[in-house]
Specification:
By secondary structure, this protein is mostly helical. It has 12 helices and no strands. The mean pLDDT is 91.
Amino acid sequence: MSPAVFLRLGRVSNLPTVWTNALAGAALAGGAPLDTRTLPLIVALSLFYVGGMYLNDAFDADIDAAERPDRPIPAGAIARSTVFALGFGMLAAGVLILAWVGYAEGGTGAWPALSGTALAAAITAYDVYHKQNPLSPVLMGACRALVYVTAGVCFAVPVAGAVLLGAALLLCYLIGLTYVAKQEHLNRVENLWPLAFLAAPLGYGALAAAAQPALAVFWLALAIWTVMALRFVKRRQPGDVPRAVVSLIAGISLVDALFIAGTGATGLATLALLGFGLTLALQRWVPGT
């Protein structure tokens, strides 16, 4: 398999959003996000993401043969069985790394591995059942919400209320995003009301910024970017829906930055903003959808 196929199958341009998810989950849990657990946590979550993307292509190979024949499997660039093996292998490796994190010095025991197992199950369920499933946006959102929970339990148990709140708001954002993504091959969005879920983090940010003025800049960045992405949805010219999808994916890091800033860690929130910029830059080289 060529490096180009590996990168395309894994949609690796979106990985910075996973890294900022990890930082946000750790910060919301009250941990020190840049301690010795951070790097293995990020590696594990990256494996979950890339493995999930591989399985997405493997399970969708028959549909892609009709709708997206240029995808690596129907194009003959790699065997479907190989993609299945690599995808499940990466999920298993992610769980093993989280087990190591849990039982390393200062760890929280079995909780990271248990949460990682739940994340792997949610990813697999989405990849198997997302086609023609009206609840697939909720399932995808649950995957990202579990990333927050998994990162959080690496630093503190039981799960902090702030982590659960952040996970619920991120779930809402992903419901709206995934609804748009499901329409991508149609290049249109049939109903607009599910997009209201994207407003949940903005509503939280507006209330939080009233009490913490330092959050205003992060809230404004997310608000402006979300409106810009939704303009493509409203315009609906050729290519606009895919453009909205990749824009909203990059915006996940802006959601993370807002939540991190809410903990008072504005320096770390600025790092999440860099993740947003890196995602946009990488999407120019590797398709984000």
